[in-house]
Amino acid sequence: MNILNYSFATTSLSSTLNDVSDKSSAFGSRHDLSRVETPLPDWVIVGESVLVRPYSYSGVIAYVGPTEFASGTWIGVELDAPTGKNDGAVNGHRYFTCRPKCGIFVKVDKLIQDKRGRALRNYTVSAPAPAPMRRSVSRGIIHSTNSFLHVLRNISTEEG
């Protein structure tokens, strides 16, 4: 009789756990909830570019710390594309802010540091500096040096 009760309880618990859908969760997967905590590498800091395994989603770490939805340290990632599960809030608690479906929470073992992504994010195309302005002596009008030289070149080519 005890064996029957034990197998019924095990079957009941197992079926209850299997009925929970991973897709309904606003963080990683249900499997992530039971993982053993691993120490955080030094590069896991807010602002670091990462890839989320196994999907290779790219993004930036936006939150590192405890959450109300599960124990342990979770990393909130703002994804580059809307392939995530939230906007930085889970169950009404905001951990960071991003566009809808661009946020995801994962454990550290699902992250890979993306040095190439960091280099691309840090690279900014600097606009050429505006040409210095100077006052024209003959007309009292302010001209851009580049514009003035352009006009002079056009005049000289038309006259020649």
TrEMBL record:
Chief localisation class: cytoplasm
CC terms in the record's Gene Ontology section: dynein complex; microtubule; spindle
UniProt keywords, alphabetically: Coiled coil, Cytoplasm, Cytoskeleton, Dynein, Microtubule
PROSITE patterns tied to this protein: CAP_GLY_1, CAP_GLY_2
Compartments, as annotated in UniProt: Cytoplasm, Cytoskeleton, Spindle
Any single Pfam family the record assigns to this protein: CAP_GLY
Occurrences of domain CAP-Gly (ranges): 65-107
Protein name (record): CAP-Gly domain-containing protein
Taxon lineage: Eukaryota, Metazoa, Ecdysozoa, Arthropoda, Hexapoda
